[in-house]
Amino acid sequence: MRLLRNIWYSLPVQLVLLQLRRHWFLLLPWIFLVLVVNGQLFNRMGWYLLFLDPEYFGRVSFTSFFVVGLALGWLVFIWNVVGYIVHSHRFPFLASFQKPFLRYSLNNFFAPLVFLSIYFYRLIHFQFYMEMKSLEEVLLYEAGVLSGMGLVLAVSLSGRLNIGAERAALRQRAMRMRWSRTWAYGKRAVWPGDEVRVDYVLIHPFRVRHARNVRHYSDKDMARLFRMHHRNALLLVSGALAVFVVLGYFQEHAVFRVPAAASILLLLSLLLAPVGALFFWLRSWSAPALVLLVLLANELVRWGILGRESRAFGWSYETPVPYNLRHIEDAARSEQVERDIAAGIAYLENWKRKVATYYHPLQRPPLVVVTASGGGLKAALWAFRTHQLLDSLTGGRFFDHVAFISGASGGMIGEAFYRELYVHQKTGDDINLQDKRYVDAISRDLLNAASFSFVVNDLLYPWRTVVLDGRRYPRDRGYMLERQLNENTGYLFRRRLSDYAHFEQQAISPMLLLSSVVMNDGRRLLLSPMPVSYLARPPHSADDKPLEVDGIDAKVFFREQGGDSLWFTTALRMNASFPYILPAVTLPTMPRVQVLDAGMRDNYGTETAIRFLHTFRHWIATNCSRVVLIQVRGDFEKKYEPVADRRPALLERLAGPIRSLYANWSDLQDFHSDALIGTAEDWLGTRLHVVNLEYVPLRQDRMATVSLHLTAWEKSSVLAAAYHPRNQAALRLLAAWLNPQTTTP
After folding, report:
1. Does the predicted model carry a pTM greater than 0.90?
2. Residue 579 DSSP symbol
3. Which among 149, 359, 440, 644 has most CB atoms closer than 10 A?
């Protein structure tokens, strides 16, 4: 019993109890990290893989884990600093040590040690059993984490936080205590009743000592000592924050694009540091002050003093267009729609002449429409790889037959990259569409640059700008994502939207429609070099009464702001602006409105594809033998067993409706898409074939995540899905349909 009592009244145990009893906020970062690493939080987005397989300079190595270790060590240091500020007055015996902060940090090990143990267990399981790495490689990775942590902690545990009472008394007498008086608490070092009983303290990892009595020191001296420690801690934290701001100026250099896991750890430390500062200055008033600061920040953002808008590169914001119903309807008035339909028919005639070389004069060609789902980089890789296979199987005929492409998010990045290479090939460049290096290019990391930019730029110093085309824009994580995408793809995307107008009008390239969803009213923003106002209205009802305009042709609506001068990478970003991961792009309107990922309304691009077919249904019925709608599904397979909890608990019942809406959002869109496709053959006037090319993982419990980062295993899983029996059958069927010998007149 005595041993248990001694353990109970030891400093490590009392610190844990104090955090559980009074300061839950100190444990929240570690609870969050444990849930993330275990895959219980943000599992679908693959956050756990950011920690288990961090990538730096394009590969997983000792260096990438070392950088994660640096960030983890910094979080541990900040956590100990905040805890020391909050708790040290309850443990006055710490002043008796020559290095009080070091002793406090040594005893405050429980939460970081629990996380590190779980992290290393998960790391071994993933790298050794899943990635098939050798034991030596796994141990090297863990050594990288420990080395990074050790380096930061060795530097941060400096003498300025480790001044004992005797040294402090000598220093104060030498300085005549001028500075110390300024920062003194008052006459007492501890508040009445706040001191916590502690009998034993760890002074080394394996050495315990009885806590010394410090009654022989005056309360005033103890107060000055702890106050000096707190002040020095805040100075160190403030200096580190200044370093982060400086790093923001170098974020465009590859060496500073640290693994996304490191950025998450830095973000947690930056969120934790102000808590220590508030407690240092305001003590018991810190919670009300935090609420007031949040309300103040809310108002500062409202009036544009704090925070910056993420803008569309290429558009002018000097003379915004009114965003009201009249202007929205004017952009889709009947005369405009008729002109755009005429331009669309001219495009289809050019497309027909292009594919006519494959067929007998009496044969009618099949028209191919492609829709690509969202799903992060896995969707981009899947869309790109399926097109490589289809063109290989058809001898290069497949993409010539594609007339229209729509979709959302990552899938459209893959479609756009393949289309870009196709255009370069058609215009005379030496491009081999089957080259495997393009597969590597489209699957390279996009998350590291964006996440680090969020921490060191968007969060700490959001006022940095960049001058593009003579206009000034915010240099935010959206800009860094576009820059990284250009680097990954060899700068092939360095075009404006208008640069594709000639290629599409002459049918050198298929029409590729990018879109986004206006967050304020749910309308679709249509981004195309071709005029497409006919896609801004749903098909007319039976009595020929037009329905509400639910889309905006950006080329027409923003004519005065630059319209089709939009950078193509920005159009891709607007199409893939997943909430919180990327900033919502603000449009040049008055009042300001913002746009989000196209998948918020139509993750499969089916709605716009059906509208395209409906608009040109008479031309298609006359000139095409069939329509082949290819759905490239990079998120989920089409049919899967429903999942339901047979015995939901109370909390699961309460959260059920909200969770259901989020979890089934893609399914609801899928059901809506099927309903549209099911009625299409009634008015199309020719045969409609629907083919699904689905990402089906080799193992159902190991699906590639929806992220802007792919691990080596995830890449191999996506590429292997092409050999699934269902996809092999679909590929053979498509190859047969695009064979001139099987196309009917």
Report:
1. no
2. B
3. 149
